[in-house]
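subagent[fold] <- orchestrator: predict structure for attached chain, return C-alpha cells only, no commentary.
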Amino acid sequence: MLEAVHRDNNGRVLTVISPAKSLDFESPLATRKHTLPTMLDRSSELVSVMVEKSPDDLQTLMGISRPLAEANFERFQDWDPTFTPKNARPAVLAFAGDVYLGMEASTFSERDFTHAQKTLRILSGLYGLLRPLDLMQPYRLEMGTRLATSAGANLYEFWGDTITHRIQEDVAASPGTAALVNLASNEYFGAVRGELLDARVISPVFLDAKADGDYRIVSFFAKRARGAMAGWMIRERIKSVRALTEFDGMGYRYSADRSRPDTPTFVRRDGGC
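subagent[fold] -> orchestrator:
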C-alpha cells in the first residue's frame, strides 16, 4: 500500500507539471484573475540571449522546422518585459498540450483557480517556475535545450538550484506541506533537486495494457493522465498523499502490487492502444 508521509493528515500537497509546446492565445479566458511570474529577471536574461539568434540559429538549436523557427524568432523579438492581460495570458490557460487537455483548466471554477494557485506549479525553460495564473507571453524554449549562457552550456546550468529554491520557498510558506507530487516529464523534473526539498517527492506512474498482456507507459496517454490527475487534485482539494490512490480518471486504477512508496502506480486495461 502507498505509505502516508510525515504530516500527511494535516498538510497539503504541492504538484509540479511540465509546460507544453502547443499554445492557445485565442480562446476565451475562463477567469480574469492573473498574477506576474516571480522570476522575470532571469527570463529577461534568457531573452537577451535568444534575440541574438537568427531563424537559422533557432532551427538548429531547437531542432524545429523553418516555419516554427521563424515564428519563434518573431516571438523573442516581440517579447515585452511589461506583462499585461493584453500581451500575455495565464499560464494554465496558455498551454494547450496533452497534459493541459487532460487537466481541462478551462472548466475550473473561480475557487478552483484560487486553489490551483496555491498548490500547482509549472516548470518552464524560459520562466523557470510558473504559478497557474502567472501571465506568460508565447514562447518555445524547452528545458533540455543546449543553450549556452554566461551560467553554463545548457538551461539546467542556467537555472541551477533557483527553481528548487523557489519550490522550497513554497513548501516553507505552508508548513503543513506533506509532499511534492511530480507529474512532470523527466526532462523538466531534471531541473529540480528533490534531495534539497523539505518534502517527500511522489512520482505517479501510469501504465496501459499491451497486446502481449504486459503493461507499459504509453507517452501520449501518460501525459493526459498526469494532467487529469493534476486537475482532479485541484477540483477535489486533495490534501494527502494517501488520497492519490482514489484517482480513477481516464479509466486508470491504483495498483497496490505495482506501486512503491514513492511511485504510486495506476493501470488501465482498455486504453484503446
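orchestrator: received. Logging for downstream: Confidence is low (pLDDT under 50) at residues 1-10. The first helix runs from residue 40 to 50.
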